[in-house]
Design a protein that fits this description.
Elements lengths: L4 E10 L3 E11 L4 E5 L6 H8 L11 E4 L2 E5 L2 E2 L3 H5 L2 E4 L11 H6 L8 H5 L5 H13 L15 H14 L4 E5 L7 H18 L2 E5 L3 H7 L2 E6 L2 E7 L5 H8 L26
Parallel strand pairs: 3-9, 3-10, 7-8, 8-9
Antiparallel strand pairs: 1-2, 1-4, 4-5, 5-6, 10-11
Helix pairs in contact: 5-6, 6-7
Bound molecules: adenosine-5'-triphosphate (ATP).
The site of adenosine-5'-triphosphate has 11 residues, from helix 1.
Membrane topology: Peripheral membrane protein
Keywords: ATP-binding, Cell membrane, Membrane, Nucleotide-binding, Translocase, Transport
Protein name: Phosphonate ABC transporter ATP-binding protein
Length: about 280
């Protein structure tokens, strides 16, 4: 597979809200970890939602292919989009756990896409599925909390459980929408380290929207910056100089190189620094 994600001429107009995405085209190769950055309202979350078909683009043009299958063409979802979605782990800013359920039950939700409806309804999971869920929790350092109610966890712990759910789903692609926006620096670091580990060790493709440029540079070899719904930078995050960042964010506040050293670029599909 040449690219895990291919977006071609995608635009999105929200009624009176105006145009949120303008003729976006990009390609992301297997095994990349990419940060989507840009000012508030630039279209990061909107773009991410389109990748898994949670939003539909404008009808005139535009196509999105993920993991070799069409997600949407000219604003119409593909009939097999559920199949594609089952291979995408989506991490939300607000975790999306079921608060009244235990950590283990939440993580086992990740296996639902692979099992029959009756097993899902009866919450009947095999020993292998339970072992995978436990191993996923171990991977994110949350195996000591299996029986805890999700509502009793801190934000950082909940986010790690959400990642364990994506691991149990055996997702091939992780899309994370501002996964650290509600977390303290220590929890943010942990969550980003886990995502980078999944990318490096398992070779999973990870796309993550981030407000914090330092984290984008440290953990994501490639960055794509949006501004007013346009791609204004696509290239190695090491090339995000203060001048480029000031242009992207329309500020003068970036004076120094990002404080966290950049992770070396692995490979970039169609990545081109254009700002
Ligand atoms: N459901 C919606 N209805 C109308 N307008 C919307 C909707 N969702 C997003 N928008 C608009 O689309 C634009 C892009 O929003 P989006 O949330 O994608 O930006 P963002 O870069 O993710 O911002 P932030 O970093 O603040 O989350 C904004 O102008 C926003 O107001």
């Amino acid at each position: 597979m040449e690219s895990v994600i291919r977006v071609t001429n995608l635009s999105k107009t929200f009624g009176k809200g105006g145009k949120a995405l303008h003729d976006i085209s990009l390609s992301i190769a297997p095994g990349e970890m990419v940060a989507l950055i840009g000012p508030s309202g630039s279209g990061k979350s909107t773009l991410l939602r389109h990748l898994s078909g949670l939003s539909q683009g404008d009808r005139e043009q535009g196509r999105i292919d993920v993991l070799g299958s069409p997600v949407q063409v000219k604003g119409k979802l593909d009939s097999d989009v559920r199949q594609t979605r089952s291979k995408i782990g989506y991490i939300f800013q607000q975790y999306n756990l079921v608060n009244r359920m235990s950590v283990m039950s939440n993580v086992l939700i990740g296996a639902l896409g692979r099992i029959s409806t009756w097993r899902g309804c009866l919450s009947f999971f095999t020993k292998e599925e339970q072992a995978l869920a436990l191993e996923s929790l171990r991977r994110v350092g949350m195996d000591a909390f299996v029986n805890q109610r999700a509502s009793r966890l801190s934000g950082g712990q909940q986010q790690r459980v959400a990642i364990a759910r994506a691991l149990t789903q055996q997702a091939e692609l992780i899309l994370a929408d501002e996964p650290i926006a509600s977390l303290d620096p220590e929890s943010s670091r942990k969550v980003m380290e886990i995502l980078a580990d999944i990318n490096e060790r398992d070779g999973k493709t990870v796309v993550v929207t981030l407000h914090q440029v330092d984290y984008a540079c440290k953990f994501c070899p490639r960055a794509i910056a949006l501004k007013d719904g346009h791609i204004v930078f696509d290239g190695p995050s090491a090339m995000l100089t203060p001048a480029r960042l000031n242009a992207i964010y329309g500020t003068t506040t970036f004076n120094d190189e990002p404080a966290l050293p950049a992770r070396a670029p692995l490979k970039i599909a169609g990545g081109l620094a254009i700002a």
